[in-house]
Amino acid sequence: MPVFFEPAIANFTGKLSPENITPQANVLITLVLTVIQALLINRAVNHVNLVGRSSFLPALMYMTLASLILPFLVLSPILICNFLSIWMLDKLFSIYRRTEIKPLMFDLGMIVALGSLVYFPFIVMLLLLSCSLIIFRPFDWREWLAAPIGFATVYFLLGVVYLWFDRMAEFYEIWLPLTYPFPTSIHIDIYDYLVLLPVIVILGLFFVSLRQNLLKSVVHIRKSFQLLFCMFVLSVISFYLNADWSINHFLLAVPPVAIYMTYYFNYATKRWFYETIYVVLVLTIIYFQFF
């Protein structure tokens, strides 16, 4: 609701939003897409019983985090890429129990390539595929080659199209972000830091809860949380690959953080405490969107 009363919301409009879409329509479309993503991540988490028991908590946590700051509430390439992130997680959670994963890794490589065409920093998810093989599988060089081949297939076909129309110079420009220097400083509005405080507190409580329960979990669950940590780190450090840097890049980190928060709320025992901290989070989000 607060976003409808924010005159500057038009300034946050993403690249995928045509000029004839009003800011309010932009927000409503984003809301629908975010709800769909929340339900998809909810199904993926419950399918592998990642957080102890089935519930709609993953969807709730995802919706909460996806509403954290104003730039998250409008259409952007990052929002579209989160569909691919959730799809990848659903597939990656399953490779531990599979005997043959080369076709799956090939498909995942193609998904990363398609995501990088929408939003180039998504290319770092190719490293996530390598992390998943290290975490879940014994070494098999064929499995390691499958993902890069799938990735290269998409760009090879794209390169053929550019070559056919004699526009290879534009094809080479796609790779320019890889030459950007890593920034030594980041300037973020102080309000963006303040709204993160309740999230940081919940993540701290999550690590305490995880430490107490992790050894009781099956191996697959432990390895899945390691994979989510890799995804979070890669999502954060890839911001420098975007020339037009903006804070909505960190929407890529929402899926793993949402699952972490779900784990804490699933295992928390003091109801008055965890309900209070969630209410504080929601009130903080609303306050900084209005003011």
The major sheet is characterized as: none
Distance between the termini: 13 Å
| Proportion of beta-strand residues | under 5%
Low-confidence stretches: 13-17
Overall 3D form: globular
Mean pLDDT across all residues, rounded? 84
The percent of residues in helical segments reads 55-70%
Order of helices and strands: HHHHHHHHHHH
Radius of gyration: 20 Å
| Multimeric organization | single chain
Computed structural class: mainly alpha
Fold and architecture overview:
The chain is an all-alpha fold and 291 residues long. 64% of the residues lie in helices and 0% in strands. It has eleven helices and no strands. Helix 4 packs across helix 6 (141-164). The longest helix is centred in the N-terminal third of the chain and has 25 residues, at 23-47. The protein is globular and about 65 Å long. The two termini are 13 Å apart.
Task: Provide keyphrases for this structure.
single chain; 291 residues; mainly alpha; globular
